Amino acid sequence: MSEEMDSRARQLAQYMIETGATVRAAAGQFGISKSTVHKDLTQRLREIDGLLYDQVRTVLDRNKEERHIRGGMATRRKYKGA
After folding, report:
1. pLDDT tens, 69-79?
2. Where are the domains of the chain?
3. Whether 58 contacts 20, CB under 8 Å
4. pLDDT tens for each residue of 12-36
5. DSSP per residue over 41-78, as a string?
6. Are residues 51 and 19 in contact, defined by beta-carbon separation less than 8 angstroms?
7. What sign has the CA pseudo-torsion 56, 58, 60, 62?
8. Which of 11, 15, 60, 75 has an alpha carbon within 20 to 30 A of 27's alpha carbon?
């Protein structure tokens, strides 16, 4: 089971690095919960592959910095209909 989880963490990391996806988008793509994605990328991946962890951490940090902008744009689309 652990090898399966390690493999999933690596796949999630590769997906997020290649696409710049959010945790929510990655969870939807892989059919798992956001908390599982977050745990895989922040805890499990750090232990199994430090280099990959550093790369995905960059994506996670960028997404965190931009989330208020995405939220504002979603609200704008909701009320403007565009």
Report:
1. 888 888 989 99
2. 2-80
3. no
4. 999 999 999 999 999 999 999 999 9
5. IIIIHHHH-HHHHHHHHHHHHHHHHHHHHHHHHHHHHH
6. no
7. negative
8. 75
